Amino acid sequence: MNFITTHPIALLVAAISIAMLVCILRNTGTHDKPVSIIEPQDLMDYEHPCSWCQKEQAIKAQPHESHGICKRHAAMLLADARRINRAA
């Protein structure tokens, strides 16, 4: 009998090895594209600070600040509300 058919662990190792090789070959050369980096402070609106952005950046809110919400977090909250309403 064949070794792989009689030893399931060898079959599992062979399958995982083949899957890893396919993943490596598919991703070769895809990381050569330049990536634009967005720094967290680039997303801040200092005139109307977003409390969600400040929480992500571990910035403690000041008592005198009136917090707004940025477009990114407003869209996230709206999407969450829509998802919750559909689930209910």
Question: Overview of this structure, please?
Answer:
- The longest helix is centred in the first third of the chain and has 20 residues, at 8-27.
- The termini are far apart.
- The model has no long low-confidence stretch (mean pLDDT 77).
- This protein has helices at 3-6, 8-27, 51-56, 71-87.
- It is mostly helical.
- The protein folds into two domains: 3-28; 44-87, no CATH class.
In short:
By secondary structure, the protein is mainly alpha-helical. It is built from four helices and no strands.
Classify the helix fraction into a percent range. Answer: 40-55%
Number of strands: 0
**Derived structural class:** mainly alpha
Q: Count of helices? A: 4
Domain tally:
2
Query: Kindly state the mean pLDDT as a whole number?
Result: 77
First and last CA, distance: 56 Å
Basic shape: elongated
Parts with pLDDT < 50 across at least 5 consecutive residues: none
The main pleated sheet reads as: none
The succession of helices and strands, N to C, reads HHHH
Using only C-alpha atoms, the radius of gyration works out to: 25 Å
What fraction strand?
under 5%
Characteristics:
88 residues; mainly alpha; 2 domains; 4 helices; 53% helix; elongated
